[in-house]
Every structure is written in C-alpha cells, then in structure tokens.
C-alpha cells in the first residue's frame, strides 16, 4: 500500500488505562484523546500496539465499566473512515469480538507484517518474543487457552474483574519499581528476536511495545528496531511519513 499525499502512519502503545487509579487514568485517557484528535487530519492508518488497558476481559453480555471516552473516540475515527489496527498485549489479551463488531477495528493476536511505500514493517506487542522468559510464555499459553477463558468468564464480573484488577495492579507496581534503562544490544530480547528474523528475511522496521522504554536502534544499514515506549511517563509514539519512521513525544 502507498500512502496518499501528505498522509502518515502512526504507531502507539501501552496506555495502561485503569492504573494506578481512576483519577490518574482519566487524565491519561483525555491526553490520548487529545493526541488522536491532533493527528486525525493527516493519519491514514493508526496502529495501537497492545496494553491499551491495564486489564480487559470481554464477557458475553457485560462491557467493563470505564474507558467511555477512548472507545467513543475510536468509534468516531473509524466511522469517519480511519483505518485502525489493534494488537493485543499481555494486559488485554482476552479480547474477543467487541472491537471488531462495535468499533470496526481488526484485532491481531500475533505479530503481523505490513508494507507501506515499499517499506516492510513487522508490528506486534512484543511479549513472549525472543529468548528466555519461559515462565511468562507458559502462562501466556494458559491464558490464551479457550477453556481457561471460559472458566474465568463463569465468575460473576464483580469477582472476576476484582481479582484480575488486583493482580494487574500488583504486577504494575512491581514493574514501576524497575528503572527503565537500555540493557545493551546483547541483552535486549526484542533486538535479539529482530536479528533472528533478519536472518530469514528483510524487514525495514520492527515496531514493538511492551518494553515501556522508547528505543530507536539501528540493526543494519536499512533495518531498525523501534520500541514505542508508553503513555504513563513518556507519551511516546512513532510516525511513518512515507520515507522514514521517527520516534516522537506528544507535548514534550
């Protein structure tokens, strides 16, 4: 696909709406809506690359309380013809068909390739990719298991969402205690993963979230790994203008 004149592709991830409390989450939600409003005039497509929510579970007849503004903004954009892609993350992996049927947004459960203006993009949340982290990879298989999802859905929403939000908050508190620093080329597991992919095929841009640290790393002369950071501390995103992809910050 080629970009239309003066149009761009935007990538952003890791909003973690719902954390650390409703008041702070609402301020962040409004900021993200302000950003989406600011780009709608020149955005041809928007990629939301996971962990939009700190926790999300789709019951058959129940929609989790909150997030009215962001869901309404996404509906407004897609109703106006904007193409939006959503990749599930480790905090919102229990997506079903709500985004597809209510918002007309395709949902991806694994990394996917796209090509714009002759540039190849590999886009995904990034969780479970690369070496190590076997404990999480096992849990991911459990959480993705249809029976496990059904069993959780049997719980009344009051108990199910309460339990899930408690553990999600504890996970986020532990993550916040770690200083986000670049670990070096040999220790960044998404860089290791990208290099493994490059041994099989050429990719111009690897676009991931999950890592929470904005990173723009040159893998080869014509291949780069970009981590989108997050919107709790950095308000970072990436934009492809038809020729190159740039890591940027909103209102910084």
Q: Would you give an account of this structure?
A:
With 252 residues, the chain is α/β, with parallel strands linked by helices. The chain has a single domain, classed as Purple Acid Phosphatase, chain A, domain 2, CATH 3.60.21. Helices cover 34% and strands 22% of the residues. The strands form two sheets. Strands 4-3-2-1-10-11 form a six-stranded mixed beta sheet, with helices on one face. Helix 2 (68-79) links the parallel strand 2 (43-48) and strand 3 (83-87). The protein is globular, with a radius of gyration of 18 Å. It starts with 7 loop residues before the first strand and ends with a strand.
Number of domains: 1
Number of helices: 7
CATH superfamily: Metallo-dependent phosphatases
Mean pLDDT across every amino acid position: 84
CATH architecture: 4-Layer Sandwich
Q: How much of the sequence is in beta strands?
A: 15-25%
- Walk across the major sheet and give the strand order: 4-3-2-1-10-11
CATH class type: Alpha Beta
Q: What is the alpha-carbon Rg in Å?
A: 18 Å
Query: Which regions have little confidence, pLDDT < 50, spanning 5+ residues?
Result: none
CATH topology name, in short, is Purple Acid Phosphatase, chain A, domain 2
Coarse morphology: globular
How many strands, what sense, and barrel or not for the largest sheet?
6 strands, mixed
